[in-house]
């Protein structure tokens, strides 16, 4: 398999961690950010968004990092990682959709404000409102987590990978985290995975 995307993109990190959890490997090629190469006709024919990551597996091309995770989990038969039956797949899918639709948008705003924009272009009120929303969303996660142990009973699923990269970003960005203890323990548990250490916690939010 080939994974197109720069190693410091959070969504590429997500795919790399997923590969590691499943014991799979893919040859990674830099695309995006300073490497460019995402606005060519060739790349757009693989991923019409011109974003990273893109996974190529023989004749199969997959974009959207959460779909890449599900694809990797299902590629060699049903796995705990992506769910073995409709009920497990639904439980995993709920959190993956929630990551993309509810948690990522406000966290992305905080990231852009604090990391991407120069200080003179930052909007403190916008950052505060987005952070408030992040905390509302993390409260949803907090009350859904067991007091200790995995989110869905399994060691690691695609949902943990999707949520884990978000928690990495949150704890890396926010000087005084206000997420509840269950969320902090969940983050610590995921941060102990070798794939997280190798691909996600690379010194960038
Ligand atoms: N929903 C998409 C988002 C992909 C995305 O926004 N990728 C960013 C990097 S994390 C990107 O391609 N940015 C432009 C670039 O790196 O050139 C996914 O999860 O794969």
From TrEMBL:
Belongs to the GST superfamily. This is Glutathione S-transferase. Keywords: Transferase. The keyword Transferase applies. It comes from Hansschlegelia zhihuaiae. The keyword Transferase applies. GO terms for molecular function: transferase activity. Pfam families: GST_C_2 (PF13410), GST_N_2 (PF13409). Residues 85-205 form the GST C-terminal domain. Residues 1-80 form the GST N-terminal domain.
């Amino acid at each position: 398999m080939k994974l197109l995307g720069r190693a410091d993109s959070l969504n590429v990190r997500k795919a790399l961690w997923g590969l590691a959890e499943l014991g799979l490997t893919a040859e990674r090629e830099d695309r995006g950010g300073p490497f460019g190469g995402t606005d060519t006709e060739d790349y757009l024919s693989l991923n019409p968004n011109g974003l990273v990551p893109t996974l190529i597996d023989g004749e199969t091309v997959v974009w959207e990092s959460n779909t890449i995770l599900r694809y990797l989990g299902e590629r060699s038969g049903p796995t705990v990682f992506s769910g073995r039956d409709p009920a497990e797949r639904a439980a995993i899918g709920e959190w993956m959709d929630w990551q993309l639709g509810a948690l990522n948008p406000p966290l992305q705003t905080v990231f852009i404000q604090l990391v991407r924009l120069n200080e003179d272009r930052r909007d403190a009120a916008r950052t505060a409102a987005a952070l408030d929303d992040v905390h509302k969303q993390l409260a949803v996660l907090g009350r859904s987590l067991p007091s200790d142990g995995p989110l869905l009973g399994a060691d690691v699923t695609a949902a943990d990978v999707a949520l884990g990269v978000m928690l990495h970003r949150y704890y890396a960005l926010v000087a005084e985290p206000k997420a509840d203890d269950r969320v902090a323990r969940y983050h610590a548990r995921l941060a102990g995975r070798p794939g997280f250490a190798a691909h996600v916690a690379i010194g960038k939010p």
